[in-house]
Write a structure and sequence with these properties.
Length: 417
């Protein structure tokens, strides 16, 4: 009973802090690796579920070391702008707000020992009663104030028909570098949108980029259809094909990997120097749009037999930039601009460098420049921006009328240009 009360008190503190800031995907422990939250049995999918469906999310992560521990998770409902709202648990969940993560396995024949954990949501302990934004928090049972990480996910209703058009920007300025995203929304047959500027919020996100998630302003209402178009917020930088590396085979360097060495108990991979692609022509190839997939050649079960590798990145540059910082972004490195994914200037190498410890597999990423004082990163500096670039756009439509107790997610879709 005492342990339960301590758990509850710590989670109340976390909740109180959450009210003061926009919640996001955050990792608090350096020992936590390879976090994946996606639809069960659908590789490289996003954590988006339809309310009332049989779909489930699969959470997976590793904790370095050979000691198996007990972890739990908590689920909280959030507003459209990612603040914890004031709904009672019973209003958004049928079951328990907190639950234990019941599955784990120790790694097998790896240089770096780790424990692999997994759980599905919803499950026999918890189902969803409400649509909207959700935050999943994983914490240690042994040390309740030790939060390992948080992950955001979405539960949506089908209460709107969402159509999109993605194309070049009109006019000459920026048309070769940017993409224009127009969204058209129809209500269910026989219904209508009342006071759309007050009761509805439309968000568009490019790939996994948290900094390129924007609320689009309403342009006009045509009949019973909402039009979101022709505004500055609709224009997104095209970016470029994601960079990639393949360390599924630690004995043979592949593609962009120059060499792999062994230092003590560590595998260390050195990637070929990164190119400045901003002045090159656009060349299309299929990619993972910033995601990664764990894979290990000649292994039966990569989830527990794939090893960890220190991967070294280097971006040659004659002189350092004093007006901002370079960051490697992608699922494995995070989509924000943290100190952990910031490249450091090495004067003796005349290059920006970074290293990350990742599990064997296939990885994709981009190098983004963040100017001092700016929130949106720039792909134009070393990636280049091309209107032809293939991107995934995630569309989320929220409703909060006087009859609603919370921000309902009444439509969600993913489109590729």
């Amino acid at each position: 009973m005492k342990k339960t009360l301590v758990n509850f008190a710590i989670l109340l503190i976390i909740s109180a802090a959450a009210f003061a800031q926009t919640l996001k995907d955050t990792v608090y422990s350096r020992d936590v690796k390879s976090i994946v939250l996606q639809r069960e049995s659908v590789d490289l999918s996003q954590p988006i579920l339809r309310l009332g469906s049989d779909d489930r999310l699969l959470l997976q992560f590793d904790v370095l070391g050979d000691e198996s521990r007990y972890y739990s998770y908590r689920i909280q409902h959030c507003s459209h702008d990612w603040q914890v709202d004031d709904l009672a648990v019973s209003e958004y969940l049928n079951g328990f707000e907190t639950s234990s993560i019941g599955n784990s396995r120790n790694s097998f024949t790896t240089r770096q020992p780790y424990v692999h954990y997994w759980e599905t949501v919803p499950n026999e302990m918890t189902t969803f009663n409400a649509s909207g934004n959700y935050l999943l928090t994983v914490y240690s049972d042994d040390d309740p104030d030790s939060v390992l990480f948080t992950r955001r996910f979405y539960v949506y209703e089908v209460q709107a028909n969402i159509k999109t058009e993605i194309g070049q920007v009109l006019g000459s300025e920026g048309k070769d570098h940017n993409q224009n995203v127009s969204v058209y929304i129809e209500p269910p047959k026989g219904q209508y949108f009342n006071n759309p500027t007050l009761y509805y919020h439309l968000y568009v996100r490019q790939n996994g980029r948290a900094d390129l998630c924007r609320e689009l302003p309403l342009h006009s209402v045509k009949g019973n259809e909402l039009h979101y178009k022709w505004k500055d917020e609709n224009v997104f930088p095209g970016g470029n094909v994601f960079r990639y590396f393949d360390i599924s085979n630690i004995n043979i360097p592949m593609y962009t990997t120059a060499r792999i060495e062994v230092f003590g108990d560590d595998y260390v991979a050195y990637l070929k120097p990164e190119e400045d692609r901003s002045r090159k022509n656009y060349v299309h190839r299929e990619g993972l749009h910033g995601q990664f997939k764990v894979s290990a050649e000649n292994r039966n079960d990569a989830t527990v037999e794939a090893d960890y590798v220190w991967v070294n990145f280097a971006l040659p540059m004659a002189t350092p930039r004093m007006d901002g910082t370079f960051h490697i972004v992608g699922d494995f490195a995070g989509w924000d601009f943290s100190d952990e994914n910031m490249m450091q200037w090495q004067p003796q190498m005349k290059a920006y460098t970074m290293r990350a410890q990742v599990k064997q597999g296939y990885y994709s990423y981009q190098i983004v420049f963040v100017k001092v004082g700016q929130k949106e990163g720039l792909t134009s500096v070393v990636e280049g921006d091309f209107f032809e670039a293939k991107n995934e756009y995630y569309i989320f439509l929220y409703q909060h009328t006087p009859a609603d107790r919370f921000d309902r997610l009444i439509g969600a879709t993913v489109v590729k240009n």
